[in-house]
Amino acid sequence: MLYEKLLLANNSLTGAFPPSLANATSFERIYLDYNHLNGPLPSDIVAQLPALEILFISYNNFSSEENLTYFLSAISNLTQLMDLGEGGLHLKRRLPSTFCLLDSLSIILLQDNKLDGTIPSNISNLQNLTFLELSDNLLEGPIPVELFLIRNLERVWLSRNNLDGEIPSIPANITTRLGVLDISQNHLDGRIPSSISNLQAMRFLQLSENFLRGTIPSSLAVQELKQLNLSFNQFSGSLPHGGIFDALTFDSLKGNKFCETEGYLNCSSRTSSIAHRKEFILLLSITASVLFTLIIFCTVATKPFRGTALGLSRYPFELISDHPRITYRELWEATGGFDQTRLIGSGGFGHVYKGTLRDGSFIAIKVLHQHDHNSSRIFNRECRVLKRVRHRNLMSIITTCSNPEFKAIVLTFMSRGSLEDYLHPRGDSETFLSLTEIVNICSDIAEGMTYLHSHALVQVIHCDLKPSNILLDDDMTAIVSDFDIARLAYAPADRSATVDSISTSTDTFLHGSVGYVAPEYGYGRQASAKGDVYSYGVIVLEMVTRKRPTDEMFERGVSLISWVKY
């Protein structure tokens, strides 16, 4: 009997790579990622699997120092290989150019290793490549222009490396399908080439935390970008108008020298008269005096809170350095004293309020119940998850505000509410989703969950996927939110740790909500990605039927989950 697949990912397998697999020469697909396998890399075994098309062994504990060269050589001889996942294996070596000879490769996942050297210029040989994940390595040198000549390439992640030089000029009339490009947290300098508009399929462009300078090309406003992050560079001048620039937030622009942007001086002030400058200096002096007085007042006013400052606490997840500070008083003012009219959502662990900051921008403030003895763990859990994930279809955190008496997470406000509001509107209001919107929302949710399960540095199990936790932004893009009871598969520093020890979970926490929870959880099964997939299927069915899973028409199905322990 011939076996073609080995599907054992996301388990707790230990020991060495099974040597008997070398006899299974007919194997085409091996999924052993996210386990605790150790010992040497399986060079001898891989070399004897000529039919292998998919090899996923990411995030195990293989020792790679002794036989790394032989292993990479064995990989380079797999002429049928299409998908390669070797993330998190600490492969300390130059990125092998021999990989670029495997023209059948479609997916390369080599993130979170120690690969150094440059990106090979012959990478353009991989014309079937769709996904390239090389983030969190030690790569250096320029980004080769050949990368943009791959016609089927859709997504590229090169963040958190040592890449330098300028962003290459993009050739005209290219046919690449590149839609996602993340080159943040490198050492890139120079200007953004105006030819970047030649990447007509681009939807997500992440350029933050580099040394890029100059003005922003107006050609970016013409592209149909959904997300653009320019923060913490050396850009200057005025921003273009139209397109993505009409929707950019301050967080996407901060750390630059832009004009005509909230928080920066207006360009026209540079040509103002001496009299105007004197007035400005006088106004600045008065403002500084008032601010000094307010600081003293606020210091005294916060004494009743056990002497704890009502700003960001220094909790273990280090959100301070990358996120703006916000005080309890600012949140109080933004919500009118957490007035009930500002309440936009409630759950078992807290309330969500709509807030308006002094600059007129809107935020969502999730305030945890302090009477719940689990509030600290819930707060830490959600912060831990939100700190480690970043995706266009996942909720992004702005900052936190924490002290012994108060814990809140400040999130991006979603103007169109939740998917629940559209499927089951309250009162007499009628809301309908077009077929196109349904397909797009389903696709967005799937993208977000795929990232959590397979592409995030730490695998995340959401555990409570339902319409009320799917939010919609201005252009009806679906955003997965609410990670109260999410599970982390393991922490990067300790891949031998269990789910519970990492997420500080307890068996008393919910596995999900009635109607959306996987039936096997009722038999004590541990949370897994399959449970999220089950919940996703229920949501798709609900979008099509506009009926809740607890509706009478699904009465027989409800009995399957009635045993779940809550």
TrEMBL record:
Protein's membrane topology: Single-pass membrane protein
In the UniProt record, does the keyword Nucleotide-binding occur? yes
* Location of the Protein kinase domain: 338-566
- Record-annotated membrane-spanning stretches: 280-302
Q: What is its main location?
A: membrane
* A Pfam family the protein falls into: LRR_1
Q: Which SUPFAM superfamilies match?
A: L domain-like, Protein kinase-like (PK-like)
GO molecular function annotation: ATP binding; protein kinase activity
Cell compartment(s), UniProt: Cell membrane
Q: Does the keyword Chaperone apply?
A: no
Q: Where does ATP bind?
A: 366
Q: Which keywords appear in this protein's UniProt record, sorted alphabetically?
A: ATP-binding, Glycoprotein, Kinase, Leucine-rich repeat, Membrane, Nucleotide-binding, Repeat, Signal, Transferase, Transmembrane, Transmembrane helix
Under the heading InterPro entries, the entry gives: Kinase-like_dom_sf, Leu-rich_rpt, LRR_dom_sf, Plant_receptor-like_S/T_kinase, Prot_kinase_dom, Protein_kinase_ATP_BS, Ser/Thr_kinase_AS
Q: Which GO terms describe its cellular component?
A: plasma membrane
Query: Per its record, how is this protein called by name?
Result: Protein kinase domain-containing protein
